[in-house]
Amino acid sequence: VIVVGIAWMFGYLDLRKAAYVVLGIGIIFGAAELVSTISGG
DSSP letters of 1-41? Predict the structure, then answer.
């Protein structure tokens, strides 16, 4: 996420792509958390 922010600040990445990356990471970590919560009881 930090690398994406730096790339966006220096103009290597537009805001839409940066948002997709952040959302994707959030979904991946959220899904892992959800699965561990469900399977953990």
Answer: -HHHHHHHHTTSS-HHHHHHHHHHHHHHHHHHHHHHHHHH-
The tally of CA atoms less than 13 A away on the side-chain side of residue 21 is 13
**pTM value > 0.85:** no
For residue 20, report the phi and psi dihedrals to the nearest 5 degrees. Answer: -60, -40
| The pLDDT of residue 38 is above 70 | yes
Domain range list for the chain:
2-40
* C-alpha to C-alpha distance for 10 and 2, rounded to whole angstroms: 13
